[in-house]
Amino acid sequence: MSELLAVGRYEFRMQVRKRSLWLAMLLLAAVIALTQGDRGPRYTEAGAPAREVMAGWALLFGIVVPIGFGMVLADRLVRDRRLGTTALLESLPVGPRVLLAGKYLGGLASSALPGLLAMLVAGGYETVHRGDPLMLAWAVLAFGLIMLPGLAFVAGFALVSPLVISAPLFRVLFVGYWFWGNMLPPEFLPSLSGTLLSPIGDYPVSWLIGETALYAGVPGWLSFLRPAPSGVSVLVSVVLLVLVGLLPLVVAGTVFSRQRRTA
Amino acid sequence: MPTHRLPLWRYESRRAGWAARAAPPAALLVTLVMALLTASGGAGHDQVGQLLLTGLEAILPLAVGMAAVTIVARDGCRELQLSLPARYAGTLGRRLGVLALVGAACAVAFTAGVWLSGWWAGPNILASPLVWAPPMLWLTGLTVLLGMLGRSVVLATSVVSALWLGEQLFAGSFVALDWTRPFFLFTTSRVGVGEGWLTNRLALVGSGLLFVAVVVLLLRRPHLLLTEEEE
Fold first, then answer.
1. Which among B22, B169, B231 has the least Cβ separation from residue A82?
2. How far from each other are the two terminal CA atoms of chain A, in whole angstroms?
3. How much is the pLDDT for A236?
4. How many domains is chain A partitioned into structurally?
């Protein structure tokens, strides 16, 4: 456990100092916050509950912030190999699974920080604008319930997939996937939009605001993954996102362990 | 092209990397799979045609843009290149040229296949290069420019991806405004080939060439590229 925390802390401290992490994600968050249309969370009616306002902000940031998140994490393991630090890390008395898990946790924590900061800034703005101190608390809750599970899902694939298909190819496919799997109307073509596996947080947002945010539960492909939004379906969605996001790590960890044994 | 320069192009093609060469066909392959899925789901002829057109106008240019910035950033022996008498702009130009050639060849083959199979939903086939070439030039020029200015692949790819996504999501807003309409990347697939289509294509080509010109100017000081952050 202490080894896992040590690797995670190392990865976190390394990643959090990365200039492009902050620049890319805060730029994207600022642009979408400033250009939101009159249906954006800034224009939610006066007197709307804090959970509704901050769920709207989390959904708004969830459109673009994970793009920067995926781009940042896409080169983490590839870069270790390119710079030759993989061999150095393998010489440590830590198994490949622990190393990978630590990198996942550290990378997730550091790359999620700009998202949390964006939510806190939005929460601060809404606290002043609406005079409701609950906005800040809901900013943190909405981040944890809506954005974080989706980021955990993306992190698993963004770390491991580039090892197989290369970072540039992953980045292209990731952007296409993000549009297809989150924002494309399910009636247009078979898509994961509106399912429990939609990492944009459609289910938690729909549950918090009391109406369909995007396409959660709308009939479409894989109907068993499209229950009506409720507390239970939100919980299932969060658990599914985290578990499916761990799958690439489990596969990669097994492959790395075998490689080390046969080396 | 003189035959003695062929090995140089072959070498630059290898330096560009397999991922760059694979990105354009992979993008069109994904489009094809999506179209097959859509067709098997009972979608109409027009809907499938639109999807195939979107692959050509939206997905292929994004793939080429992403691959281009990687080519610029990933040179592991740039210091060595800069010590040679050959201009670095020419070297990079050849590598990006290989990518453009692969992209164009894939686009022409894809267009021919779609047209011959009767799914073509775009303009006259002779004008078909205007579906993919302007957005490809524009997105690639912008991505490389941002990559050079920010010296970060992450920053360039994030901004361009968000712009691409924004234009897809808020297409109506982009088309509604007079000053954004000429620069809307997906006019063929989202609006159609009507009034203003040619103006839009020419505006994209013009601004794309402007991006390329600034990149060439920046490459006159190639040492600025030496501090890039990641692949």
1. B231
2. 26
3. 97
4. 1
Residue of A nearest to B23 (CA): A169
* Residue B24 CB neighbour total at 10 angstroms: 27
Nearest to A166 by CA among B73, B31, B22: B22
Residues A169 and A87: beta-carbon distance below 8 Å: no
Answer yes or no: do A63 and B165 touch at CB < 8 A. yes
Residues of A with CB under 8 A from a CB of B: 18-21, 23-25, 27-28, 31-32, 35, 37, 63-64, 67-68, 71-72, 75, 78-79, 82, 165-169, 171-173, 175-176, 178-180, 183, 188-190, 221
- Give A260-263 contacts, CB < 8 A, sequence gap 24+: A260/A90, A260/A96
The angle formed by the CA atoms of residues B164, A204 and A244, to the nearest 5 degrees, is 75
What is the per-residue pLDDT for B231?
A: 44
Q: Which helix (H) or strand (E) is A62 found in, with range?
A: helix A50-73
Point out the residue among A24, A63, A180 whose CB comes nearest to the CB of B155.
A24
Please give the Cα distance from A158 to A256 (Å, whole number): 17
Predicted confidence (pLDDT) at residue A105 exceeds the cutoff of 70? yes
The answer, for B23 touching chain A at a CB cutoff of 8 Å, is yes
The residue segments making up the domain with residue A202 are: 2-262
| CB contact at 8 A, A215 and A207 | no
Nearest CB among A23, A37, A171 relative to B66 is that of: A171
What's the pLDDT tens digit per position in B69-113?
888 877 767 667 777 777 778 888 888 999 999 999 999 999 999
- The ipTM of this complex is 0.84
CB contact under 8 A, A175 and B30: no
Assess whether pLDDT exceeds 90 at residue A172: no
Chain B CA closest to residue A78:
B231
Buried b (16+ CB within 10 A) or exposed e, B182-210: bbbbbbbbbbebeeebeebbebbbebbee
In chain A, the percentage of residues whose pLDDT exceeds 70 is: 100
